[in-house]
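Here we describe the complex-level prediction in full. Unlike the single-chain runs in Section 2.1, the two entities below were treated as one system.
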Amino acid sequence: MIEIRGLTKEYDGRRVVDDLTFEVRPGVVTGFLGPNGAGKSTTMRLVLGLDRPTTGHALVGGRPYVELPDPLRTVGALLDAQALHGGRTAHGHLRWLAASNGLPARRVDEVLGQVGLADAAGRRIRGFSLGMRQRLGVAAALLGDPPVLLLDEPVNGLDPEGIRWIRTLLRDLAVEGRAVLVSSHLMTEMALTADHLVVIGRGRLLADATTSEFIDRHGRTRTRVRAVDATKLAALLRDPGHGLDATEVDGGAWEVSGAEPERIATLAAANGVVLYEIAVQQDSLEEAFMRMTADSVEYRAEAAA
Amino acid sequence: MSAPTLPAPLPAPPAAPRTTAPATRPATRPALDAFRAERIKLTTLRSLWIPPLVALALTAGVTTAIGASLGDKDDSLTVDPGVGVFYGLNFGQAALICFGILLIGQEFNTRMIDASLTAVPRRGRLYGAKLALGALVGLTVGALATAGAFAGYAATAPGGWDGPAFVRAAVAGVLYQTLLVVLCLGTTALLGNLTAAMGLLVPSLFLLSPLLSGVPGVRRVVQFLPDRAGQYALRYADDPQVGYGHWTGLLIMALWTALAAYGGLRALRRAR
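The structure predicted for the assembly as a whole is:
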C-alpha cells in the first residue's frame, strides 16, 4: 500500500506537485490520470525517493522508500523504459538488478519468460523496439515479486496486442492482492484497466474515486430515443409542459437528459408516439474527464496562470 | 498469450495485502549485494571492461616496445629508470581515466542512475560500491601493469631493479593507477555528467598539466596537481625543482582523490 500525505514538490519556486493526499490500496488497479505535465511522473519519482519532497511524505508499506530493506522485494517500478544502457543484454540488465537486492538469479529467467522476452534474453537492448523495452521494464518491476507496483505510462509504444497484454497483466497482479498504481493519459485504456482513479491537474488532486463513481459524478447520462413518426416525437419532447431537456442528434434521433427512460416511454405511449429505439447512454471516461477538468475552477485558474 | 478479450468485471475482488519476504539479513549483506551488482554491471558491458584491459596492454606493452627499440639509443629512458619503466603509463592512463569516468558517467548519460537508485536507494551505499569496484579494478590493473612494465623494461634495458627507489616506484606505480581511477570516478560524480567530466579531466590531465609544468613560474603551482604530484613518486631521481618528496607526492594525489570522492558523495546525496 502507498500512502501519500500532503506531498508537495517545488522546482525553482514552481509547484509541480501541490499538496497531494491519496492512497493506493492492495487488490485494485489504481489509475493515475492527468494531462501531460500534470505531475504524475514527479509524484512517482517522489514515492521512489528519486526526488525529495519539498513538504509532505510518501510511504510504502508504512516506511519511506529509502528505508526499505531490499526495496525491489516491496516495490516494482517502471519509470522510463529508455533509461538503460543499450550495450547490455536484457539478461545482463536484469542480472545486476537481481544481485543488488539479493534476489536469486533464476528470477531473471522467470520474469523474462513472464513478459515474453525469453528468446531475446541474450540480445543487446540497443536493438530492442520500444515495445520490447517496455516489456523489459515490466520484467524489471516484477523481479522481486513485489506487493506494490508503480508503472508510469506502461502502454507507451506498445502495439494493440501488447496493450491488451499489459491490461490483463495489471488486472491479474491486482487480483493476486498487489497494490498497482498505473499512470496514463490514455483515458479509454484506463477505463478498461483501472478500478479506482486518482486524477490530478497542475499537480493538484482533482478526484479520488472508483472509476464508476467518477463517471457517474462527472459524466452525463442521457436517454436516446427514436420514433416511427419523427415529427410527433419532436413535438412531444419540445413540449415545455413535460419539462424535458432534449436535443436532436441525428436524423430523427433525440437525446434526453434528466429523465428516466421509464418516464419517456410512458409519456410516449400516453401520446400515441411509437418508439422503436430507447437506450441509456453514459459518457465515456474520457468525456467525464474532459467535463470535470473543464468544470474545475482550480484547474482552469492554474491553466490560465 | 491467452488474454481474454475483455478484462475481469469491475471491481476486482479485494484480497489480503501481501507481505514482504522475512528480513533475515546480516548488516553487511546490503553492501555486498550493492558491490556484486556493480561487478555485474562491469562484466556485462563491453565499453566498461575493455578500457582496463587496454590500460594494462598499453602500460606494459609500450614500455617494452619503446625499451626494445630505443633502450640503448635514448638516455632519457635510462638515466632515471622510473621514466623508462613508466613510459607506457603515459598511454595506458588514458584508458584508466576513461574507465573511471565511464564507470559512473554512463549511468548519468543514459539516466540508468534512476534504476540504480531505485534498486539501491541509499546513495552512499551505491556510491561506496562503485568506489570500491573502481579502486579494486585500478589496483588489479595497477599491479599487473606495473609488474609487466618492470619486466618489459628489464628485458630490454639494463638495471632498475635495485635499491629503495625501485620499491618506492613499484608501490607508487600500483597506487597511482588505483588513485587515478577513483579520482576520475569522484570528479564525474561531482559533476553529475559524463560529457562535462570528459571535457574537464581529459584535457587537464593530458594537456594542461604536462604543458604548464614546462612554464617556469607556473610550474611551482602545477606541481601540486594530482597527476604531477603522483607521477613524481614514480621517479627514481630527486628533482630539485619539486618542493616535496616522492612519497609526499603520492600523498598529495591521495588528498586530491579523497577530496574528489567526498565531493562526488555530496553531489550524489544532494541531487534533486
